[in-house]
Amino acid sequence: MSTRATSASSASRALAVLPWVYWIGGPLAIFLLGIFGASLRATALPIAVWWPAVGVALWFVLRAPKRRKLLALLLVFGVTVLSNYAAGRPIPLALIYGAINTAEVALVITFLDAWRRPFRLHSFACATRFVLSILAAALIAGTLIGITGYAFSGVPAQSTAAVAFASHSSAMMLLAPFAVLPPRIPEAVRPLELGIYAVCAAAAIIVAFGRISSAPLAFLVFAILTWGALRFPMGVALTQSTVIAVTVLAVVLSDAGSFSGVALGEIDAAITLVTFMSAVGIFTVLVVASRYEGRVNAALALTAAHDVAEAERERERAAALGMQLDLERQREDFVTATSHELRTPATNILGYSELLVAADLPDDATDWSRAVHRSATRLKSLLDDLHQSAGMAGTAIEPIAVDDLIDDVRAAHLPDAEARGTVVEIHGATGLVAAASAIDARRALWSLVSNAIKFSAQHRVTITAHRDGDEVVIVVTDDGPGMAPDTLANAFTRFYRGAEAAAASAAGLGLGLANAQELATRNGGEIRLDSALGRGTRASLVLPAAP
């Protein structure tokens, strides 16, 4: 519907820009074609063999805006009367023929219901209605013309009516469809193919109507018409059929073909000629409309199939998302239950191991106690990560001395760092103050330092801090293997462990960075990572600076 509306609005704009082309050029074409048609009068008949003026008249009224169709009809009447008078017909006869032509056009408009809304050849049903409307109006007009001819010249009404019917129907069938073309479907037309078509059409006309053969070979033209109607866009195919019909008329009128063996002045020859032209128009209109409807239906079917496939993909995505959410819920339930059940025994082990480390024990026992304490501390850290991943909230926002935060986290990691032979360095006191939850800030920095110690290759970790505008940035740098692009892209995904972690046999659940990011985010900050394979990792904890 939108495409049709766009086409109609484009046509209206064109008429608004150049109204004189339509309102002056249309009637002028009717007038000139009326004089030309009168020159085609057969010797045995009081009328023209072909009357193209009525085809242009129907095109003119069909293209007229809805509110001005009556004005267009009045112009058709006046111009048709003038052309008949100019062609030598007496005024009474010119008035009668003008009235018949105008009534004929009005009947077609009425049958098509084109007074109220635009008519378009967008389906076979519409094409059939178009053809039947023209045939019915031409039959009525032909009958009236036959009676008029008998009254003015005494020629038998049946013969005149038959020629008038075929003459008017062929003219309207060939010329009027250009006023009711549906929205154009984009389609490439190659000049070479048009050239080949023209050569073949000319050859078919010469063989069928020239002096090459006296056999009835008019059917050859319909083979060419079928090619054009099924291959080219509607406007091109209709133009080709009109050119072919007019060319056949010219060949016959020139007395250069086998068809001229029967004098054009004879009634049978005239009826045969215009009936052939009418058949060309009917055939082309029906075929091109059917082809257009098929292409539109195919496009609609393709769109519908695409919509169905897209809906199916949406259902699959929704189902996958539902399953993912369910798995996430089950995982969170498991993490919550597991961390809750293990925290108490882990705390007990950590507490008793601290007592053992502080006690006066033999050297071997002291080393064992410290190993137990380190493992208990690590276990407690893992449980804290699990507890954090279950969504436990931190405390309220408060001022945090950054130097104290760094010293606290460094001191907590010194036993593990010393056991690994890693030096954790702090470069300079900063005096900076951040605004965040102390628990959240400590846990976030804890994860960054823990990862740096775990992956350090040259056993050196550096912690620095600086202010960047309204933010405090704490940077933890290690000299480890770094991260590949895929690992870096998934670094904050829960339970994700990159190939570097597996290669280094590093312990962990893949929760440290994800938890640190969540902790920083809910305090108005973030975690930034800068890493590449072989260049180590630079992890930054960004927190809002205190006022």
Please give a quick description of this structure.
This protein has 547 residues and is α+β, with helices and mostly antiparallel strands. Helices cover 66% and strands 8% of the residues.
Describe the protein.
There is one protein chain. By secondary structure, the protein is an alpha+beta fold. It has 18 helices and 7 strands. Helix 4 crosses helix 8. It is rod-shaped and about 145 Å long.
Question: Span between N and C termini?
Answer: 62 Å
What percent of residues are in strands?
5-15%
- The side-by-side strand order for the widest beta sheet comes to 2-4-5-7-6
The major sheet is characterized as: 5 strands, mixed
SSE order and pairing:
Blueprint (H helix, E strand, L loop, with lengths): L1 H16 L1 H5 L1 H14 L13 H12 L5 H18 L4 H21 L12 H30 L3 H19 L15 H19 L9 H13 L2 H20 L13 H92 L4 H27 L8 E4 H19 L2 E4 L6 E4 L1 H18 L4 E9 L2 E8 L6 H5 L9 H5 L8 H10 L4 E6 L5 E8 L3
Parallel strand pairs: 2-4
Antiparallel strand pairs: 1-3, 4-5, 5-7, 6-7
Helix pairs in contact: 3-4, 3-5, 4-5, 4-6, 4-8, 5-6, 6-7, 7-8, 7-12, 8-12, 9-10, 9-11, 10-11, 10-12, 11-12, 12-13, 14-15, 15-18
Notable characteristics:
547 residues; 66% helix; alpha+beta; 18 helices; disordered N terminus; single chain; two-stranded antiparallel sheet
